[in-house]
Amino acid sequence: MAVYAIGDVQGCDDELGQLLNELDFSPSRDTLWLVGDLVNRGPRSLEVLRRVKALGSAAISVLGNHDLHLLALMLSTHEPIKSKDTLQSILSAPDRDELIYWLRHRPMLHHDAKLGYTMIHAGLPPQWDLAKARACASELEAVLRDEKQCRELFANMYGDKPERWSDDLRGMARLRFITNCLTRLRFCRADGTLELKYKGEVKDAPGHLLPWFQVPDRRSREARIVFGHWSALGYYDADNVLGIDTGCVWGEKLCAVRLDQSVRQKPVFVPCSSSGLKPGQE
Known about the structure:
By secondary structure, this protein is α/β, with parallel strands linked by helices. 30% of the residues lie in helices and 16% in strands.
């Protein structure tokens, strides 16, 4: 049985199908890990959701920021359709409610102790060890699975504050911080506060910013973490993290990496030409 991690699909269903063919993937034998952002910006978000849902337990997908945006469009009157969104096919689909229910019940974090990997969409703040990260993800998952609490969350989710973790955080401030880390984080300042504005390449970042996985004394540094979200970073295998968002939706490629072998095989890529987005616009 093979376990493959796949980067941000974002509605690129043709390329996802091609990648699965390249891997000779069989749902009766193999498992997919998907790092989130199944939908949006690409041309076939509805087909991606249907494909991944149909795989049942053979596919494990965490939620990304675009997935949460879709949920917010459905469950909150505060979230408008954006000009670059490509979600209308889902919003008008006959199986829309079933798909939305399924999406709400995806995890925010997936940990496999036997395999020795943890999957998230974006990042972890330096104050969290793996146990804290799993506990915080579970808090958010519980809210998403309760329809009343879920609606309240989406009415209050957006914003960049608070910037720093405290165990004393409560209510929506706590949930917003957890959401921002797991679905939006790329950079932190050296003092451990979040920086959510800058989205570009590491080499062009302001000098006071560090990738979240390079902050000194990061408490999750012993955990092997697979993540996506950061197309400007591209494929990244260092610092005990594996970044696999390789920019499929803006015309680059979709990436798969096998996780269940002691020696890393080369990643498998399929080329994409789904849109003209630029890195950092995700």
